[in-house]
Each structure stands twice: as C-alpha cells, then as structure tokens.
Design a protein that fits this description.
This protein is an all-beta fold. It folds into four domains: 151 residues, Jelly Rolls (Sandwich), CATH 2.60.120; 92 residues, Beta Barrel (Elongation Factor Tu (Ef-tu), domain 3); 116 residues, no CATH class; 283 residues, Methylamine Dehydrogenase, Chain H (7 Propeller), CATH 2.130.10. The protein has two helices and 58 strands. The strands form 15 sheets. Strands 2-49-56-52-53-54 form a six-stranded antiparallel β-sheet, with no helix packed on it. A six-stranded antiparallel β-sheet has the order 18-25-20-21-22-19, with no helix packed on it. Strands 1-58-50-55 form a four-stranded antiparallel β-sheet, with no helix packed on it. Strand 40 and strand 41 form a beta hairpin. The protein is globular.
Length: 750
C-alpha cells in the first residue's frame, strides 16, 4: 500500500477524547505552534548567579535619561532594582527608632538574641537594620549586631528574636548600650494564601493548637497571688490574662523563675451570673466554653467577672488573653480564630516609572517613590514624603494598584483611601475604599486634592464589590472589578477622566491575569477566558479549558499572572495546579495562529522583550533570559507532543503499521547530532490501554548541502488505531515536525 501522509491540525485539543480528535494533538509540553506545525520551545538561562530574597511577583523595565537600564523586581519580602545583574535593595523604611530605644539580650551558647523595642509593630520575616550598637561583651560584637536581620519570632508586642551568625558566650551580658537605632523595613507579605476562618474554627475543648498552656506546680487557696507554674514562657508580660479552671487572673509579672504575680478574680466576682450571656461588656465579646461551662470572653474587659476559688496541684493554666502575644490567645469552641485581613493574601506589587523615577505600591499598602538622582543605594520613601516634588495634598496612603497614565501623565491609585480632612492635609484619610479611584494632578504625583488650578480628582466604580486590576491600552484604561469591566478615559478639564461601564457579570481570576495587546485585552476568568475587542466582551473559545480549570488550585489563584511573548504571538497564563502552592504550569493562547497549548513551567513573574532583547522571567530567586538556545539553563529540556488516534475509514478494521517516514527538521540545534524519539502506540478500542508501544530514534546525520536524518523508522504494530508521540530529551536539540508518512495496511476485522 502507498504511504499515508499524517497532516495534523495545529494546537492542542484536550477537551474532547483522543479518539474524537483524530488528526489533531491531545497533549504536549514545552511545544509551540508556528505556521501550523509543532516545534520545541526556546530554552532559558539565568542572567547571572545573583539572587534576590523572596518570590518575585512583578517586573518592570525602564531606561533613565542617562541610559541606565533598570528592572524593578517586587518580591513578597523586598523590593529591588536590578541593574548590571546586581539586585539593589530599595525597600522602604517603615519606621526608625530613637537612639537607645532598642536593647539586646543574649543567652550563653545560643545564637538567638532577644530584642526589646516597645510597640515595634514588626512581624515574623520582617527586616530590621541596627546601628549604634556596642558589643554585648563576648562573641556578640558590635560588628555582629550592626547589620540587617530578618526577624525570627515575635515574643510580644515589645520584643522579638533574631538569629546571629555566632553563638553567645558567658561574657555576653550587656544590652548593646544606649545608642542603638533600629530601622524597620515595611512589613513583609505572605508567599502563600492564608484562608479565612469563621464559626467552628476553634478547638472543641476551648483550646487552639498554638494556645500557651502550662500547669500549676502547687495547690492554690483563694488568697494566694504568687502562683507557681511549670513553665512561665510567654505568659509573664504585665497585662496578660490567664485562665485556671473558671477563674481569670491578671498577670502583673514574674518574681522569679516559674512564679507569676497575679491579681485574683480578675475584674470582680460572680462568674455564674454571666453564664450564656452574649455581647459581654458591649464589645461583641464571645463567651467561650471549657468542659461545658462558660468561663471567659474572648476580649477581656472590665465588665468580665470571675470568682477566686481554690485550685488543685497540676491544674491546667492557659493564656486567656495575651496582650503581648495575641497569636497564642485562648480561643474557644465555635469562635473564629484571629486572622487579619492583610494576612489573607499574598504580597503583590504594582509599579510604574514616572519619568526616570519609580513609583511602587504593595497591594493594599502604601505608595512609595524612588528618585533616580539619589542613586541605587537609597531606598524608596513614602510618596507624601518625597522631596522631589512639593505641594503634597491628600496623597493616598493605601491602594490596591497604581499606574501612570502614559498619554496624560497622571498617577492613578485604584482601591485607595479618600481625601484628607481639608485641602491642606498632606495625606488621605487612611480609610480604604475598594471601589475608589483617585488621580493626581497632571505632572505632579504629590498633588491629589482637586482645585480649580489642577487636574486632580476621583471616580468611584459602580459595579462589583472590589477593584481587581487596571490595564492600560492605546486608547483607554480598562478597569476590572470582581464582576464588571469599565473604561476609564482622559477627557480633559474640568472632569479630567470619565468612566463607562462596558460589561457586567464577568469574572477575573487575579490582580495580574489581564493583558493588553494593542487595543484588545485578554484575561483569565474564574472558569473561562475572555477578550475585549472592538467594544465587545466575549468568551474566548478554548480547546484546553477543562485541562486548565479542572486541575487548578483556586486557593492560590492570586498567583496567576499573564505574560506576552510577542515574537511568537503568545499570551501566557502561569498558574498553580491542584495541590500545588507554587506556580508550576502554563496555558498559552497564540493570537496569531488562533490555537491553544499548555505545559509545565515554574515562573513567578514574566516580562516580554522590549528594552531588553529577550523575554525575562523569575523563579527560584533567579532572573532568567528566555528564548536562549534550547536547554533548561544548561540541562536538557524535556519536550513532547502527542497526537490523537489515527485509523482508516470508520475505524472498524484492524491495521498493521510497518514503517514511518519522518518529516522533521533540526535546524537551529546546537548539538552535533540532535535527535528525537518517534513513538507509535497501538490499541484496539478507544477505552483500552495501548497494547503495543515502539520507540525509534530519529537523528540528524548531515546538514550540508541539505539537512539529512534517519530515512525510515521500522515498526511492526497491529491495532484498530495508532497514536504518534515525539519526545526530545537531548541537549542542544531543536525540532520542528512536518508531515510524516506512514505505511499502514488493512489487516482484517479481528
């Protein structure tokens, strides 16, 4: 029989069965389609060995007037500007203490140092830089102390621990002197989403996994105020409240190891009168239960009353309300655990250059300004505090996203706080409105209060409950809420900007899942893809929709981010698969070929080529150049493409496959003898397993004058249908599949 050409349709179609998708591709990884044919992805290589701290979620590239090539990198821990393959830390300072406000305490043989600083406001993983410290007397010298530290743990609102490079010795008994200054960087963000909690979050017996608990090591009568406990760790701070059976006690401090000085029957007498009483003290305090008896409210007030009674030795002692360490508070059954709003979402940055300077905004945080003229050794400062511009009025103190409108040079804050109390107020009112949009005066990023002589102003979105993302196109700014799409256009004085609702009942997956291509905007919704073009919003037909959304970790949806690879016409959404907390997969819509394909790749942020000649992406604290060679940073890249079923006629007859004539090019490969594996798989019925699989290597043998490679691949396979798979696992190999031919012969009905 003559050879039959295998002419495959471009793109991957995974939302139908492999048998139905005859003549198409059903699976692949690190393969793109160009001119209708599949080819291996370009490779990647790290730009340098320089690393940054944290997971980088956003990149921004711009050039200063002197030609300096800057790349802004926002991570969940810090903000950097990369230049010349060096990451320069410009993370803003939140607060700097007065001289002598900070003291240290070390323990012999330990690398843990306790830092005391009243109302420090820091969180675990925050960064602080000390200066002016003197030696503690031994191994903990001034040089050891006067550096940047990452906070290891929070002891209380007035103290925390750090970890030094060396262990203290018995001579380290000093406190660092009276000149220590601590410079705290803005609070770090989270790297994984923390789910909210509600009714039923507490443990059944009125404890939490982190609740501090110990035992009495002596019996107590009704009058004792010095009580001995097995372990006083975490409950010695004045103002803490402890619970022993049904009695509350107010801690005044400790007199010696494991002895607490307390006020008995805290706040009065007669706990029994408060059984099953709600809203105690008018502060929405929730009554907690232990062994079926009402004993305590979650927030202790002066109206809470308990009786002093006797307590036996070994009775449980618990931290009921920790003014110093709220994370370890006692939480009763049926009560919500304490979770802050800001702790629920991962740290994301928006940023844009204003001329050669940079404006940055951690999502739901402040707005900061970095002045290029001050150099890369200086940090960004609050926008309201920059000396670059004058006349600060009502500068927003919190926002969900910022951008600079390129055509008209306004700084725009989305989901921000309102105007200050009056026209002379320097900052906004500090109350975030998730639907409020405010914009500065033209060419002045610090003037936000509208007057007759400036173009500052505000708008409020009319649909949805919160702003999600703004995307600038050539003609307008598209503004997404969680339910609606709006167009924001510059219209000039007196209103400056106008707002028009474009679509209702749409969804958007994450704050960085929409991208503009000319005047069209593409985005990922919560269960489908959309495009806005020509004044209309439509769902984008997708042949791999089920593959993506049925294997998706929605808890980490805020990590979804979209990038553009303009050289190949690819819009790339990176997302986390089910059960994964990190981004580890991608789906691509090729808007030139009008096809979809997907694969596996871990990238936290992506930036298309532009000022720099290659696309860039981040992962594993490294910055990578993409479309470099055909390898994974010096290691072989694993790439494959697999077809749907191939049969003859109606598929009612068995076939015998004897030979395959490959049609493939290795043009561009850097390997001397690049190769791929051609695998033919046979099966008898769509629901059956592949009964035979034969793999044969195709290798380039010559390149001049015409590229030559393995002429024929010999097989002996029988089945009702066949599938073709091509794998590439060799260094320096690029391949592109053409139109292979197969020798398939009819072989009867059985």
């Amino acid at each position: 029989m003559p050879f039959t050409k295998l002419q495959f349709k471009p793109g991957i179609v995974s939302d139908v069965t492999a048998y139905t998708n005859e003549g198409g591709f059903v699976d692949g990884d690190l393969v793109r389609f160009r001119l209708g044919f599949p080819e291996k992805f370009g490779g990647w290589a790290k730009r340098s060995s320089s690393t940054y701290e944290g997971s980088a979620r956003r990149l921004h590239n711009w050039v200063a007037l002197d030609g300096s090539d800057f790349l802004g990198v926002g991570t969940h821990l810090k903000y950097y500007i990369e230049e010349g393959n060096t990451f320069n830390d410009i993370t803003p300072i939140r607060v700097t203490t007065g001289s002598g406000d900070v003291t240290f305490a070390a323990t012999n043989g330990s690398t843990t140092i306790t830092v005391t600083d009243a109302a420090h406001g820091a969180n675990v993983n925050d960064f602080v830089t000390f200066s002016g410290a003197a030696s503690l007397g031994g191994n903990i010298t001034a040089d050891v102390l006067n550096i940047e530290y990452q906070i290891a743990s929070i002891v209380s609102s007035n103290s925390y621990t750090i970890t030094s490079a060396v262990a203290a010795n018995s001579s380290d008994t000093n406190n660092g002197g009276g000149s220590v200054v601590g410079a705290y960087q803005i609070n770090t963000g989270t790297d994984t989403t923390v789910g909210g909690t509600g009714w039923g979050a507490g443990q059944w017996s009125g404890t939490t996994d982190g609740a501090l608990a110990t035992q009495l090591n002596e019996a107590l009568d009704v009058s004792e105020t010095a009580i001995d406990v097995d372990d006083e760790t975490g409950i010695t701070t004045a103002g803490d409240v402890i619970l022993i059976e049904e009695e509350l006690m107010l801690v005044a401090g400790d007199s010696d190891d494991n002895t607490l000085n307390v006020t008995r029957a805290y706040a009065g007498t007669g706990a029994s009168s408060n059984v099953n009483t709600a809203n105690h003290g008018g502060s929405n305090d929730s009554l907690l239960q232990d062994d079926g008896t009402t004993i305590i409210v979650n927030s202790v007030t002066s109206n809470v009353v308990t009786d002093a009674v006797t307590h036996a030795d070994n009775t449980l002692v618990r931290l009921a309300k920790g003014n110093a360490d709220s994370a370890n508070d006692f939480v009763g059954w049926g009560n919500a655990a304490s979770v802050t709003t800001t702790g629920n979402q991962i740290r994301l940055y928006s940023h844009d250059n204003f001329g050669e300077d940079l404006i940055i905004n951690p999502r739901d945080g402040g707005i900061f300004y970095w002045d290029k003229t001050n150099g890369l050794s200086t940090r960004a400062v609050e926008l309201s505090a920059t000396s670059t511009y004058s006349g600060e009025t009502s500068v927003p103190t919190i926002a969900k996203q910022i951008l600079v409108s390129d055509q008209d040079r306004h700084v725009i804050a989305f989901g921000c706080d309102g105007f200050g109390a009056n026209s002379s107020a320097t900052q906004g009112d500090g109350v975030q409105d998730p639907l409020l949009i405010r914009f500065s005066s033209q060419e002045n990023p610090v003037q936000w209060f509208p007057t007759a002589t400036n173009t500052a102003g505000d708008l409020r979105l009319g649909g949805g409950s919160t702003f999600v993302q703004a995307v600038e196109t050539k003609q307008q700014i598209l503004v997404f809420t969680n339910k609606t799409l709006h167009a924001m256009k510059f219209i000039g004085p007196p209103f400056t900007f106008g707002l028009q609702e474009l679509s209702k009942n749409i969804t958007i997956m994450s704050p960085f899942s929409a991208i503009a291509i000319e005047d069209a905007v593409f985005w990922m919704g919560v269960d489908t893809f959309y495009v806005y073009s020509g004044g209309q919003t439509v769902q984008l037909p997708c042949t791999v929709k089920d593959k993506v959304f049925l294997d998706f970790n929605t808890e980490e949806k805020d990590k979804v981010h979209v990038g553009l690879n303009s050289e190949f016409g690819e819009i790339i959404w990176f997302y986390p698969k089910s059960g994964q907390t990190t981004v580890n997969a991608y789906v691509i819509f090729n808007y030139i070929e009008k096809v979809w394909y997907y694969g596996n790749l871990s990238r936290d942020a992506w930036l298309d080529r532009g000022i720099r000649s290659l696309p860039m992406a981040t992962g594993s604290s490294l910055l990578y150049n993409h479309e470099v060679g055909f390898d994974d940073d010096g290691s072989a890249m694993t790439s494959f493409i697999e077809s749907g079923s191939i049969d003859i006629g109606d598929g009612d007859k068995f076939l015998f496959l004897k030979q395959v004539i490959p049609d493939i090019t290795f043009n561009g490969s850097t390997a001397t003898n690049p190769d791929v594996s051609f695998t033919m798989k046979s099966r008898n019925n769509p629901g059956a397993n592949f009964n035979e699989t034969t793999q044969v290597t195709t290798q380039r043998s010559a390149t001049s004058p015409v590229e030559q490679y393995t002429e024929k691949l010999n097989y002996r396979l029988r089945g009702r249908s066949f599938a073709l798979r091509i794998d590439s696992t060799s260094l320096g190999t690029k391949y592109k599949l053409g139109t292979p031919r197969v020798d398939i012969r009819q072989d009867g009905r059985r």
